[in-house]
Automatic annotation (TrEMBL):
It is found in: Cytoplasm, Cytoskeleton, Microtubule organizing center. The keyword Translocase does not apply. Belongs to the TUBGCP family. GO terms for cellular component: gamma-tubulin complex; microtubule; spindle pole; spindle pole body. Pfam families: GCP_C_terminal. Residues 7-323 form the Gamma tubulin complex component C-terminal domain. This is Spindle pole body component. It comes from the Eukaryota.
Length: 354
C-alpha cells in the first residue's frame, strides 16, 4: 500500500487541497472566489472576454446572481487545481516507456444540499454562500480502503468550514481604511477586532487544529516505512511491523476525527459552531456596509456593530462552556483538545477590551 500504491502521495493531495496545506492552491482559490479584480466568467452579450484571470467575485455586488452557473464554475476553477497539482508518482515518465498516467482523481464538484441549505446558499451575503462547492476525490482500489467514504466525508466537512474561514480572511483583510465621518472611530475598532478574531482563529485552525494532528499521523506512517525498510535490509519480512490496511485506515480516521474535534465540527460542538457562524455573519454584514458605495448609514452601522460585539461575547461564553465540559472527560485525547481550546480562548480574550 505505502510503496506500490503510493498511499503517502494520495494523502499529501488531501493535505494540500482539502486541508489547505498548499499556499499556492489557497491563493489561487481565494483569488478565483473573491477577488473583485478578476474577470467574471459570466458571458454577456456585447462583452468580449479578455485574457485576465477568471473569478466568481463573491460579494462584489449586493444584486449579484448567485450561485453561479455550472459553466461559470468550470471556467473559473478549471486552472486552480491544474496549476497546483504535482504529477502522480505513477505518472512520472518511465525510463523505458516514457508513458504518463492521469493526474490525481481530484476535482471541484457541486455538493448535494437540503432545501434549507439551498435557500441559505442562494444569499450572496450569507456565511453559507459557498456551501454548494466541494472537492471530490475518487480513489481507486486499494487506496479506497484507507481513503474510504468515512474519511472523505470528514475531509468534506473540514473543507466546507475552511471555505467559510478563508472568506472571512479575505473580507477582514480588505476592509477599507478610509475615514467614515462621525463613526470613523467605531469602524476602525470593528476592523481591528474582526481582524484579531479571524487571525487568531486562522492560526488555531491551521497550526493546532490541522497541522499538529497531521504531523502525528505522518510520524506514524514514517515509523511504518522505517520498519519496512529495516525488514528489507535484514531479509526478515514481517518481523518489525504488523501494520495492516485496517490499521492504516484507523490511523487516518483518528487523525481526521482529531482535526474535526479541534475545529469544533463534530455534532457535540453544534453550539460552538453556530456561535462562530454568528460572528462570521456579523462580520460580513458590517463589512458589506463599510464597503458599499455611498454614505454609510450611521444607524445601520451601529446596529450591525452591536450584533458583532454581542456575537463575539456569546462565542467566547459558549467556547468556555465547551472547554469546561471537555476537561472533565477521562479520555486523554479529549483532555488535550480541551487544553488546545483554552489556548484559543485566551488568545481571543487577550485584546478584546482594547
Amino acid at each position: 500500500m505505502l510503496r506500490e500504491h503510493h498511499l503517502r502521495e494520495h494523502l499529501e493531495v488531501q493535505r494540500a487541497h482539502q486541508l489547505f496545506g498548499s499556499g499556492d492552491f489557497l491563493t489561487r482559490l481565494s483569488t478565483a472566489l473573491f477577488s473583485p479584480d478578476a474577470q467574471s466568467a459570466e458571458r454577456k452579450r456585447g462583452v468580449i472576454p479578455t485574457g485576465e484571470v477568471l473569478g466568481l467575485r463573491l460579494g462584489a455586488s449586493s444584486d449579484q446572481r448567485w450561485p453561479p452557473a455550472s459553466s461559470e464554475l468550470r471556467l473559473t476553477l478549471a486552472d486552480v487545481l491544474q496549476a497546483t497539482q504535482n504529477p502522480r508518482p505513477s505518472s512520472r515518465a518511465s525510463k523505458n516507456t516514457g508513458h504518463q498516467d492521469a493526474a490525481f482523481p481530484i476535482s471541484f464538484a457541486i455538493r448535494e444540499l437540503s432545501e434549507e441549505e439551498i435557500d441559505r446558499a442562494l444569499d450572496v451575503q450569507s456565511v453559507h454562500a459557498l456551501d454548494f462547492l466541494r472537492l471530490q476525490y475518487d480513489p481507486t482500489t486499494p487506496i479506497n480502503a484507507v481513503l474510504n467514504s468515512e474519511s472523505l466525508l470528514s475531509y468534506d466537512a473540514i473543507f466546507r468550514f475552511l471555505l467559510k474561514l478563508v472568506r472571512q480572511i479575505y473580507v477582514t483583510t480588505n476592509l477599507p481604511r478610509d475615514s467614515f465621518g462621525s463613526h470613523a472611530r467605531k469602524a476602525a475598532i470593528f476592523a481591528h477586532r474582526s481582524r484579531h478574531f479571524i487571525s487568531v482563529l486562522l492560526t488555531h485552525t491551521m497550526d493546532l487544529g490541522i497541522d499538529a494532528p497531521w504531523r502525528q499521523f505522518l510520524w506514524s506512517i514514517d515509523q511504518v516505512e522505517r520498519n519496512l525498510a529495516e525488514e528489507d535490509a535484514a531479509g526478515e519480512i514481517g518481523s518489525r511491523t504488523s501494520m495492516t490496511i485496517d490499521g492504516l485506515r484507523s490511523l487516518h480516521i483518528s487523525c481526521l476525527e482529531r482535526i474535526r474535534n479541534r475545529l469544533y465540527l463534530r455534532k457535540k460542538h453544534e453550539k460552538v459552531r453556530l456561535a462562530m457562524e454568528k460572528v462570521f455573519t456579523a462580520i460580513l454584514r458590517c463589512a458589506a456596509l463599510l464597503t458599499a458605495s455611498g454614505e454609510v448609514n450611521a444607524g445601520d452601522f451601529e446596529t450591525e456593530l452591536a450584533a458583532f460585539n454581542s456575537s463575539n461575547e456569546q462565542f467566547l461564553s459558549v467556547l468556555q462552556q465547551s472547554i469546561e465540559k471537555s476537561s472533565k472527560t477521562v479520555l486523554k485525547a479529549d483532555a488535550e483538545d480541551a487544553e488546545i481550546g483554552r489556548i484559543l480562548l485566551s488568545r481571543l480574550q487577550w485584546r478584546k477590551n482594547e
